[in-house]
Specification:
alpha+beta, 4-stranded antiparallel β-sheet
Length: about 350
């Protein structure tokens, strides 16, 4: 797939107002001519000589921004690209010029798409989609400048990446392994319709299974289950139009012994509505030693949750008609756990 880079006229957005030093004038001429290395050199000299005007900083940022595009054409994952973007971030921190911010947002989106479209490691894919998200945030803060172009870059990246993930997942027979594969894409594209459909189907089959992840490099909060938290499963859970009832298991992977308060479980719908577990929670907890299994019953809906031990909890929820359960969540000072039902 050929990457469609965004190329704006080099003369556009160059600020030419006010009194300028000799170094800045030379930098402006170099920027207009597309001699970006020279422009960066002379802007740096102007800054060293005490010029800290917004005009200088904005043009300095444009030079770095356009240079990042040239570098990325050779290697989208080059660390040099990121160092250039760091400079752009610094020099445009207080910029409100819509033309400059549009070029900023759309260029970051084009870089992100190029990175996401590479066949590199997952870490690099995350970087690419991270830049797409960054571009969307820049656009949103500046009157949605370049929104259509940014969406186009995201669509291009998602089409290839999500397509590859769905293809790989279709050949995986093990349900848990299949959910892992799909979740790797959901982290960067949680709203993709095809991906959501595939995830819902496999999650229904995996309700009784623990899924454990170490979500390294992934922004929090994430729909992934961090392995250093509480990990949940539904060995048996019946959903009806107005309620849910059954067994919920919790594996304490926080590294801490804690008191599991079964009265604090909550169920969240696909549109964000919440209901708290009904009173009368019962259950038991066991320790991590499989050779000496122990079971200790809950008292007043609470149980002793030992590190790497599990608790089995009998719960029920009541909700109104139209409530579509998405997940159950448990949270305390040591961590958080979620389990998704699938639709």
């Amino acid at each position: 797939m050929t990457m469609k880079w965004l190329v704006l006229p080099l003369a556009a957005s160059i600020l030419l107002l006010g009194c300028k030093s000799k170094q800045q004038k030379i930098g402006d001429e170099a920027l207009a001519a597309g001699k970006l290395t020279n422009a960066i050199t002379f802007y740096a000299k102007a800054e060293q000589n005490g010029d800290t005007s917004a005009e200088l900083y904005h043009n300095f940022a444009l030079a770095y921004l356009r240079q990042s595009v040239l570098t990325a054409k050779k290697d989208p994952m080059s660390n040099v690209v990121y160092s250039y973007l760091e400079q752009v971030d610094k020099y445009l921190a207080n910029c409100t010029d819509p033309k400059i911010m549009e070029e900023y947002a759309t260029t970051v989106a084009s870089l992100g798409a190029a990175q996401a479209l590479t066949d590199g490691d997952y870490e690099f894919i995350l970087r690419g989609f991270g830049n797409l998200k960054k571009a969307e945030e820049i656009s949103a803060k500046n009157g949605k400048v370049g929104a259509a172009a940014i969406q186009g870059f995201r669509d291009q990246a998602e089409k290839k990446y999500i397509g590859n993930v769905l293809k790989n997942a279709s050949s995986i027979e093990n349900g848990v392994a299949k959910e892992y594969e799909l979740l790797s894409a959901e982290v960067v594209s949680p709203n993709n319709v095809e991906l959501r459909k595939a995830l819902n189907e496999v999650r229904k089959k995996n309700r009784g299974d623990f899924l454990i992840f170490e979500a390294a490099g992934v922004e929090s909060p994430s729909r992934w289950v961090n392995k250093y938290n509480y990990v949940l499963a539904f060995p048996s859970m019946t959903l009806s139009p107005t309620g849910a009832k059954g067994e919920l298991q919790v594996w304490n992977s926080t590294g801490n012994n804690s008191e599991l308060d079964g009265n604090t479980f909550k169920m969240v719908s696909v549109d964000g509505k919440e209901v708290v577990v009904n009173k009368g929670v019962t259950g038991w907890c066991s320790g991590p030693n499989a050779l000496k299994p122990t079971k200790e019953k809950f008292v007043d809906g609470k149980g002793k949750s030992l590190s790497e031990g599990t608790c089995s909890v009998q719960v029920s929820f009541t909700y109104p008609q139209g409530f579509v359960a998405d997940y159950v969540e448990y949270k305390d000072k040591f961590g958080i756990g979620r389990k998704y039902f699938g639709q």
